[in-house]
Design goal:
Bound molecules: ribulose-5-phosphate
Radius of gyration: 17 Å
Number of helices: 6
Structural class: alpha/beta
CATH architecture of the largest domain: 3-Layer(aba) Sandwich
Helix content: 25-40%
Low-confidence stretches: none
Order of helices and strands: HEHEHEEEEHEEHEEHEEEE
CATH class of the largest domain: Alpha Beta
Length: about 220
Amino acid sequence: MSQDSKKELAAKEAFELIKADLMKESVIGIGTGSTTNFFIEELNRANVHIKGVVCSSDESERLVNDAYDVFSLNDVHGMDFYIDGADEFNDRKELIKGGGGALTREKILAQSSKKFICIVDDTKHVPLLGKFPLAVEVIEVARSAISRELMIMGGRPVYRQGFRTDNGNQIIDVHNMPIDVPYELEAKINNIPGVVENGIFSKRKADTIVCASANSIEII
Ligand code: 5RP
């Protein structure tokens, strides 16, 4: 089974999980990436009667069809569910996200939602986070200074050339970063002046992980 088919399965299963709890006041947070795109397709197809959605990127916003009102987070009192993919997850449901560069809004939406359901295929499961490069969103003028700090922490920072986040910032992808204690490193990186956010999701990790493999779907 292809990775895309597994992503689609996970997305469909997540929709099945929340379907019965959707009401006319419900607000769904929607993340970014190819797995989340399958979820948006499912939502578009289902045409459910809810208050609306909040998206973590302009790209996801474009994919949601006209049947749904798209709100800014400032216009709603939080979200019932936040559905998003991940680049890696561990047994503690901590994540690395940000491959698509939307990590800052993703973390804000995850934090503001009652339930964060992460949809993944089994290739994303790792014993220790950090094989996937860790995205750090930075203010442009601080990029080199932050890169030096990240090197001192043991990583190999690589500037994501030609990319701007929806917030107008730049991304440093940190390779081979030792992430022994995700919670501590998440806070430590965010303490460097000029860092907007980093892709470790430990403080606000997933509540539920829907993981699709070739033979089964696991709800963790
Ligand atoms: C975007 C993300 C995505 O959730 C992550 O990169 C996974 O993407 P995909 O579903 O395409 O594998 O964090 O910033």
